[in-house]
């Protein structure tokens, strides 16, 4: 998983103004081994206007612990779904995220 801060372009991410975002790029399996990266991302965006964008384009599977990390990230931040963005991902992952109730807490790009 890589962690980087980049300016988010308004038209690319649906923001009203140009903001900053923390990008997390998930590996083939999203699981609890990425706890540190998620914690660091949460610390960066807490009490700020920053967004978190999680790129799932390379991810083939999400273990239960990976879903737990996503919930913990959401619960630890006072962010609207428009500020917690999931990008990419295979159709079966999109379906699993929807079945687990993530649609109302994370915005899909």
TrEMBL record:
Gene3D superfamilies with a match to the protein in the record: STAS domain (3.30.750.24)
Domain named STAS: residues: 30-109
Signal peptide (UniProt feature, chain positions): none
InterPro entries: STAS_dom, STAS_dom_sf
PROSITE patterns noted in UniProt: STAS (PS50801)
Name of the protein: STAS domain-containing protein
Native species: Nitrosococcus wardiae
